Amino acid sequence: MQVLPQEYPAMETANEIMKQVVPILMIPINRYLRYLILYTKYMRGMGIKIIELNAAKVGVEEKTRHNISNNIEVPAQVKGWLDDVGKINAQVENVPNNIGSCFNLKIRHTAGRSAVEISEEIDSVMRRYKEINWADHPIPPGRVHSMKSSTSTLSTKPNDFQSRELTFTKALKALDPNHKSHMIALCGMGGVGKTTMMQRLKKVAKEKRIFSYIIEAVIGEKTNPISIQEAISYYLGVELNAKTKSVRADMLRQGFKAKSDGGKDKFLIILDDVWQSVDLEDIGLSSFPNQGVNFKVLLTS
Question: How far apart are CA 47 and CA 92, in angstroms?
Fold first, then answer.
């Protein structure tokens, strides 16, 4: 009688598992060998891409300088794009590119892998480059330019508001975005220097870039909502082609929302020489804070 070999269930299970595991294990091995063997190809490809990227960078920087010198808007995504290009260039500098021996397997693998990863990053950044829209819109007069914030201390000259320095310091502190005050008022009789102090506060706020936009309007004894709206629209860079107060207010409201960048950009609204109450709704703002537009009001009365 012939005895046939028996198939053991455990061995069958093990064989099935190995059939599944081996291909999975081969994936990282194949990838490792690809980085190792094609190191030169990947490095050359990265080199070509970084040249193209830096050529695009030069073009963006030249266009940015042209726009700034001609008071034209620079697209919001330009700064982030240039920052990312700088980071990629720093990564390229750290990739080993002078490997003396083909037996430096670990270094060749690391360099090949880095070249592939950086090339993918460059592709992504170049796609974003093509999406930059250079529309020739003038910079709104109220926009605070992207200058370096001042680190200088406040002036304490002998005749420079010595008697009102405490008031000035309190008002400046209230302008801080983290301060709970929504409205700051400089009140007093005419000729005591309210407007001068307001201009000083404006100067410091601008130097320290506390706000993204500083918008001004002189109110006067006879309040004219249409004239106030016109002044606000000038600094905001919004064209008001309507005649009725309510429609113009809605247009300003949309302008504030469009330029607030989801609440990131802050506005300082300066109302000088206020004799009567001013309805913020007339200039497109809510009387209550935290309604989608981050702003503070500085007024003199």
Answer: 9
C-beta separation of 219 from 189 below 8 A: no
| All residues at 6 or more sequence positions from 68 whose CB lies less than 8 Å from its CB, including other chains | 74, 145
Q: How far apart are CA 265 and CA 188, in angstroms?
A: 31
Distance CA 117, CA 275 (A): 64
pLDDT at 111: 80
- What is the end-to-end Cα distance of the chain in Å, rounded? 117
Structure tokens at 241: 């082609």
Q: Tell me how far apart the alpha carbons of residues 117 and 121 are, in angstroms, rounded to a whole number.
A: 6
Burial 164-178 (b: 16+ CB within 10 A, else e): beeebeebbebbeee
User: What does the alpha-carbon distance between residue 229 and residue 186 come to, in Å, rounded to a whole number?
Assistant: 22
**pLDDT tens digits, residue range 152-185?**
444 444 444 455 678 888 888 888 888 888 888 8
In this structure, the number of other CB atoms found within 10 A of the CB of residue 296 comes to: 22
The pair of structure tokens assigned to 81 is 């794009």
Nearest to 142 by CA among 265, 285, 267: 267
Buried b (16+ CB within 10 A) or exposed e, 65-91: eebeeeebbbbeebeebeebbeebeeb
Q: What's the predicted TM-score (pTM) here?
A: 0.61
Rounded to the nearest 10 degrees, the angle between the axes of helix 245-259 and helix 225-236 is: 20
Q: From the centroid of its chain, how far is CA 199?
A: 27
